[in-house]
Amino acid sequence: MLWSDPENEPPEEMRDMQAMLRRAGIVLALAMVLAMFAVGLH
After folding, report:
1. What is the per-residue burial (b if ≥16 Cβ within 10 Å, else e) of 2-30?
2. What pLDDT is recorded for position 11?
3. Which candidate, 15, 14, 23, places its Cα nearest to that of 31?
4. What predicted TM-score, i.e. pTM, was given to this entire model?
5. Mind giving me the DSSP string for 6-35?
6. From residue 41, how far is each of 11, 12, 29, 31 by CA, in Å?
7. pLDDT digits (tens, 9 = 90+) for 1-42
8. pLDDT score of 7
9. Cβ-based neighbours of 34, under 8 Å, separated by 6 or more
10. C-alpha distance from residue 28 to each of 16, 31, 41 (Å)
């Protein structure tokens, strides 16, 4: 990495997509925990 290298900032869409995927992952993990809990109760 040289000082003269341009910043490799990802484009706006890419960052939005990553944020969305991260949120989806969190929701999925929570759903999984709830499902396990529900199965454990039966």
Report:
1. eeeeeeeeeeeeeeeeeeeeeeeeeeeee
2. 84
3. 23
4. 0.59
5. PP-PPPHHHHHHHHHHHHHHHHHHHHHHHH
6. 46, 44, 19, 15
7. 566 666 777 788 999 999 999 999 999 999 999 999 999 987
8. 73
9. none
10. 18, 5, 20
Cβ-based neighbours of 10, under 8 Å, separated by 6 or more: 18
Q: Copy the structure tokens of residue 42.
A: 């039966």
Six token digits for residue 7: 């910043």
- Name the one residue in this structure whose structure tokens are 């529900």: 38
Strand, coil or helix: what is 24?
Answer: helix
Which structure tokens are listed for 23?
Answer: 């949120």
Tokens, residue 25:
């992952």
pLDDT number for residue 5: 66
